């Protein structure tokens, strides 16, 4: 996720409590890369989704997106099918953390969720934290990330963040 | 203003007073990965440039989700875990040892006051023995294996006070389902839950695990209980580690304190496809079922198998039903064998499978057919959870599941106890 990134895509609108079992069923956990997982994303909920989703599209869902299992395959599958960002009224805790760790942009913005229907054209400014519905003409401000997470995000995820910290501690002779 | 159990545990680890809302980096006392999540953690560990696990004695890996392996692809992931564990000197619980959340406390790895992470959402289980214990993803586990530490946002706490005594035929699983129904699937999102009251004191440590296990079904980050005499006795028999239990201050600051009187509680059932879609058994009796499952990290412990055996003794599983029993650990299986529990279950027609997660996560051991209904002691009934999106899963206590297996339909266990 680079600075000032603006994403644009069509919305795929879902309800509340979209759990990680339905995002990527356990029968596919033999795969470990976004490319292998992507084609099965949400297949038990919406079998057409993975076929029809276009690169850059945006998942929009109600409360508690990503509840259930801690499987990191869930944000990887979403990335793997080309989705650029998930906007939800709220996220389940482990999914929220996993998404940041693997570099999947997510935004908590209940007002935008209420405004969006499947097929609406959305523009998301991750730096400003804004969601613009180009179909309805409405614009919304998402919850900002805490500073600590912004630091992880700005380094492109936890792997890079830790690598950098390790390099610093070695350079410091610690 | 006083501190919650969570704030005290973090304060003890950081050597200063820590309050809810703070972002902290803390030592992790123990960490765990299972076979669904460890492969990605190992991959992330390598990407991080990791060569040596920071402290192998504080890490275990468990092969429980697909054990023994039903597929070549999974076999290869298991082999990858075995190689990593051997290379790093990390203990690996291999096929047949049991479910991670039964094993870690049973084998004495977790003690009161600990901070524990597991790459599995049901890591909240060990809150029942007074540990701050939470599920994380694979990358977090990798970072913690490498550094021994992890960042946390110290959560606010929701205190649930459970009053009264549970009626006969009503168990800790019914309490966990009742609370999920009342609080809903995200009612405790980002929060720690503290459970207290006479109901908790009256339960065995085993039964308490069931409640903390399902804290995550309300979105909770942890599900903590105080350590009482029962806890200390239970732990002391299992660990050589020293520890100091943590109690909340009387004037601790909570997000909310909720009281529930459970004297009139009925056996509870969660209906498809949501754990918080909970009804008393009276309202769902008679729904035909084709599969029944007893086991999992929620309800695969000895007393769970015992209550099922009590109901099944001298009865037969309905010819319309497959009853799959998965003891939660080898130790549980051995004890159940010694006590004749396994004999009674198998005589009644149960199919016994390897200690482990069994069919709960949908990779093997009893994937339902299209249109079938399953009643299970597991913690999740999401669409597709057991491997078939066209099947329905109902969740209940071991007693309700055993009674339903006998009758071939959802049945109030109080009729058979």
Characterise the protein shown here.
The complex is a heterodimer of chains A (174) and B (417). Chain A is 33% helix and 18% strand. Chain A is an alpha/beta fold and 174 residues long. Chain A has a 7-stranded mixed sheet with strand order 4-3-2-1-5-6-7. Chain B has 417 residues and is of the alpha/beta class. Helix content of chain B is 31%, strand content 19%. In chain B, helix 2 packs across helix 5. The longest helix of chain B has 17 residues. Chain B starts with a helix and ends in a 10-residue tail after the last helix. The model of chain B has no long low-confidence stretch (mean pLDDT 97). Classes of the chains: A alpha/beta (174), B alpha/beta (417). At the A-B interface, helix 5 and helix 8 of A face helix 2, helix 3 and helix 5 of B.
How is the main sheet of chain A built?
Answer: 7 strands, mixed
Which structural class fits the helix and strand makeup of chain A? alpha/beta
What portion of the residues of chain A fall into strands of 2 or more residues? 15-25%
Name the assembly state: heterodimer
Number of strands of chain A: 7
Indicate how many domains the architecture of chain B comprises: 2
Instruction: Give me the number of helical elements of chain A.
Output: 8
Shape of chain B: globular
How large, in whole angstroms, is the Cα Rg of chain B?
A: 20 Å
Name a few traits of the molecule.
heterodimer, A: 174 residues, alpha/beta, 7-stranded mixed β-sheet, 8 helices, 7 strands, 33% helix, B: 417 residues, Aconitase, domain 3, 2 domains, 5-stranded parallel β-sheet, 19% strand
Give a brief rundown of this model.
By secondary structure, chain A is of the alpha/beta class. Chain A is built from 8 helices and 7 strands, in the order βαααβαβαβαβββαα.
Could you give the topology of this structure?
The complex is a heterodimer of chains A (174) and B (417).
Chain A: E1 6-13, H1 20-23, H2 34-37, H3 49-52, E2 58-61, H4 73-80, E3 85-88, H5 93-102, E4 106-108, H6 110-115, E5 121-125, E6 130-133, E7 138-141, H7 147-154, H8 158-171
Parallel strand pairs in A: 1-2, 2-3, 3-4
Antiparallel strand pairs in A: 1-5, 5-6, 6-7
Chain B: H1 5-14, E1 23-27, E2 30-34, H2 38-47, E3 59-62, H3 72-88, E4 91-93, H4 100-106, E5 115-119, E6 132-135, H5 138-147, E7 149-153, E8 157-163, H6 172-183, E9 192-196, H7 198-202, H8 205-213, E10 222-225, H9 229-236, E11 256-261, E12 268-270, E13 278-280, E14 291-295, H10 296-299, H11 302-312, E15 322-326, H12 330-338, H13 341-347, E16 351-352, E17 373-376, E18 392-395, H14 398-407
Parallel strand pairs in B: 2-3, 2-5, 3-4, 5-6, 8-9, 8-11, 9-10, 14-15, 14-17, 15-16, 17-18
Antiparallel strand pairs in B: 1-7, 12-13
């Amino acid at each position: 996720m680079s600075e000032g990134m603006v994403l644009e895509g069509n919305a795929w609108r879902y309800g509340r409590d979209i759990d990680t079992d339905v995002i990527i069923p356990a029968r596919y956990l033999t795969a470990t890369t976004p490319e292998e997982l992507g084609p099965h994303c949400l297949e038990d909920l919406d079998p057409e989704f993975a076929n029809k989703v276009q690169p850059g599209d945006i998942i929009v869902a109600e409360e508690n997106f990503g509840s259930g299992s801690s499987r990191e395959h869930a944000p990887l599958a979403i990335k793997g099918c080309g989705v650029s960002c998930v906007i939800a009224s709220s996220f389940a805790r482990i999914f929220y953390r996993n998404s940041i760790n693997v570099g999947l942009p997510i935004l908590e913005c209940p007002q935008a969720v209420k405004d969006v229907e499947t097929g609406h054209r959305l523009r998301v400014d991750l730096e400003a934290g804004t969601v613009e519905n180009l179909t309805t003409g409405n614009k919304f401000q998402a919850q900002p990330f805490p500073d600590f997470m912004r630091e992880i995000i700005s380094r492109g995820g936890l792997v890079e963040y830790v690598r950098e910290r390790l390099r610093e501690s070695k350079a410091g002779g610690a | 203003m006083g501190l919650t159990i969570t704030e005290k545990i973090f304060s003890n680890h950081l050597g200063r007073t820590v309050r809810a809302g703070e972002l902290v980096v803390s030592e992790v006392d123990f960490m765990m990965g299972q076979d669904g999540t460890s492969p990605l953690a190992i991959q992330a560990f390598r990407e991080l440039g990791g060569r040596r696990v920071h402290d192998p004695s504080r890490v275990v890996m468990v092969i429980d989700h697909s054990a023994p392996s039903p597929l070549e692809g999974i076999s290869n992931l298991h082999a990858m875990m075995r190689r990593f564990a051997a290379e790093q000197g990390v203990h690996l619980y291999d096929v047949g040892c049991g479910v991670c959340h039964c094993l870690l406390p049973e084998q004495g790895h977790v003690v009161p006051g600990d901070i524990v992470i597991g790459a599995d959402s049901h890591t909240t289980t060990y809150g029942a023995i007074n540990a701050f214990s939470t599920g994380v993803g694979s990358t977090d586990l990798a970072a913690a294996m490498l550094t021994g530490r992890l960042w946390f946002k110290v959560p606010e706490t929701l205190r649930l006070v459970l009053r009264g005594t549970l009626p006969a035929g009503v168990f800790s699983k019914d309490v966990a389902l009742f609370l999920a129904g009342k609080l809903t699937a995200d009612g405790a999102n980002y929060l720690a839950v503290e459970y207290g009251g006479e109901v908790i004191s009256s339960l065995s440590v085993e039964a308490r695990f069931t409640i903390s296990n399902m804290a995550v079904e309300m979105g909770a980050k942890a599900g903590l209980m105080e350590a009482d005499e029962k806890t200390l006795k239970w732990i002391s028999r299992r660990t050589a580690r020293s520890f100091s239990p943590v109690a909340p201050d009387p004037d601790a600051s909570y997000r909310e304190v909720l009281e529930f009187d459970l004297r009139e509680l009925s056996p509870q059932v969660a209906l498809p496809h949501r754990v918080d879609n909970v009804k008393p058994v009276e309202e769902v009796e008679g729904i035909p079922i084709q599969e029944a499952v007893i086991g999992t990290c929620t309800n695969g412990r000895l007393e769970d198998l015992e209550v099922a055996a009590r109901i099944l003794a001298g009865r037969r599983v309905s010819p319309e039903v497959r009853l799959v029993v998965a003891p939660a650990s080898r130790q549980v299986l051995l004890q159940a064998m010694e006590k004749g529990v396994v004999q009674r279950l198998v005589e009644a027609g149960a199919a016994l499978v390897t200690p482990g997660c069994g069919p709960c996560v949908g990779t093997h051991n009893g994937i339902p057919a299209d249109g079938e209904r399953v009643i299970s002691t597991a913690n999740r009934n999401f669409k597709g959870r057991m491997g078939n999106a066209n099947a329905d899963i109902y969740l209940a206590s071991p007693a309700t599941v055993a009674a339903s297996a006998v009758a071939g339909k959802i049945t109030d266990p109080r009729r058979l106890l």
